[in-house]
Amino acid sequence: xxxxxxxxxxxxxxxxxxxxxxxxxxxxxxxxxxxxxxxxxxxxxxxxxxxxxxxxxxxxxxxxxxxxxxxxxxxxxxxxxxxxxxxxxxxxxxxxxxxxxxxxxxxxxxxxxxxxxxxxxxxxxxxxxxxxxxxxxxxxxxxxxxxxxxxxxxxxxxxxxxxxxxxxxxxxxxxxxxxxxxxxxxxx
Length: 188
Prior knowledge:
sigma factor activity, 11 helices, 2 domains, 188 residues, mainly alpha, Arc Repressor Mutant, subunit A, 75% helix, Rna Polymerase Sigma Factor, Chain: A
């Protein structure tokens, strides 16, 4: 067991800001799987997800001084870094071109694998049980969360994709986050 095991988050953050290697190792050991799950939901292949997760931890290491505990928890900050890094990677020109050049069988198999509840990708995304919570949302709320958070769509793009007014997307998104907040409270 790590000597940092029972440290308060504030102490861990102080050690990270001092570039303590042991604190960073603890952070990686305890959060890499959860962050990897987020990345896998956004990035299509595990090979690419592994590259992205490395970038995520480099960013965390380099930018830990920017973390502000007044704005939220360390875990939430890291999830946002993981999500944004994965979205940036997916939208990069090389990845977009690579996806265009995929044989149809690769794309179909990937979609089928994502739809199977026992898939490796689904399991890693469910590491913290978030998939179960997301599945409890009303379908119209769940689709908004998935499109915005995991697929990186803006509210305007969601409105266009779903062919609904932007105001409706904004109202449903707010309702989705309120419902999600309540489900997370009940989950604890």
